[in-house]
Amino acid sequence: MPSITYSPEKAQKVKGRVIVVTGGAQGIGATTVTLLHTLGAHVVFGDIASGPGAALEDSLKATNPPNGGTVHFRHTDVTSYPDQLALFEEAFKIHGRVDAAISCAATVDDPTWFGNLTLDAVRNETASAGISKMVATNLVAPMILTHLALAFITASPSFPGASIGSNQGFTPSVTFTSSLAGLTPTPGMTIYSSTKHGLVGLTRSLPAVTPTRFNALCPGATDTAMLPDVVKDMWRGAGFRIQPPEVVARSIVQCVVDARLDRRVVVVAGGETWESEEELEKLWPAWLGEVNAKEVEDSGVFFGGPGKRIKLGRD
Ligand SMILES: NC(=O)c1ccc[n+]([C@@H]2O[C@H](COP(=O)([O-])OP(=O)(O)OC[C@H]3O[C@@H](n4cnc5c(N)ncnc54)[C@H](O)[C@@H]3O)[C@@H](O)[C@H]2O)c1
């Protein structure tokens, strides 16, 4: 499996770039905002959590990084199209361009949706509001983000000095934060897992007609507030690994700067990062049957897909 190694040298390519991040106030999003800012990017981030968002903005501004990074927070509910539009408009107004977008916002399941159901419970139609909100946050919002990012990236003037220095080879991108639960069965988190599978499907199916790259990052268990302490204790107690959010943030930045990564699924689990589509596609003939696999590949190209992947190999 092709491993993806974070390159601090390549990461310098974000310097001066304008990057929009949603769900950036806490956890993996906040760690990513911090790393990008340290590397000299202009980060414009949104989150529904205004207090932590404003506090992160203030604390990063106080650091005054030598690379010239800037940071700007705006209250954003990603389920609102006008909110996400306003976030992109703000980035464009302040910096005159958008170079990349990263979607981190998400919420987790109400595990009662599929369990111990009574007729009284299912006759209460308001109960569906919770899952609708979750699908809106975890799946529809990244689709809105993509729609907006493509327009704002396309409207951005070419980057000054793009062909010289460390910014050479930077290509615009959209990175989705999916999950290992977006690739594997996760019965305790059924709706969450379904939305995260949706992000993998979105990444695979986005057309290859734009110069913008799209990638889905699939983290395994990560030490953030999304995992309650009791779950973390049980998880560690069973001998499973929980990685720090910094590892995931570095993998997100690698997706932003690594021009080889396009419509890829990058897994980061137990502190290791690797691309999973290349190996999976080798199994298509066994999984789908020889003829179907060939037809899926050919018709994918017919409908604007990337066709056979270029082997990642060594960078
Ligand atoms: N922590 C893990 O183990 C883990 C594993 C796999 C994937 N992920 C994914 O990583 C991403 C970041 O998760 P995290 O672990 O940092 O969780 P987190 O709860 O610490 O952060 C999620 C952020 O999203 C924000 N958010 C939620 N709803 C929002 C909305 N409607 N509008 C705007 N912002 C909203 C929250 O306020 C929060 O700041 C998520 O997409 C999550 O699904 C996390």
From TrEMBL:
Gene Ontology CC: one annotated term: cytoplasm
Domain of life of the native organism: Eukaryota
One Pfam family matching this protein: adh_short
Protein name: NAD(P)-binding protein
UniProt KW keywords: Oxidoreductase
InterPro entries named among the record's database cross-references: NAD(P)-bd_dom_sf, SDR_fam
Family membership noted in the UniProt record: Belongs to the short-chain dehydrogenases/reductases (SDR) family.
Flavoprotein found in the keyword field: no
Coiled-coil segments: none
Molecular functions (GO terms): oxidoreductase activity, acting on the CH-OH group of donors, NAD or NADP as acceptor
Organism this protein belongs to: Echria macrotheca
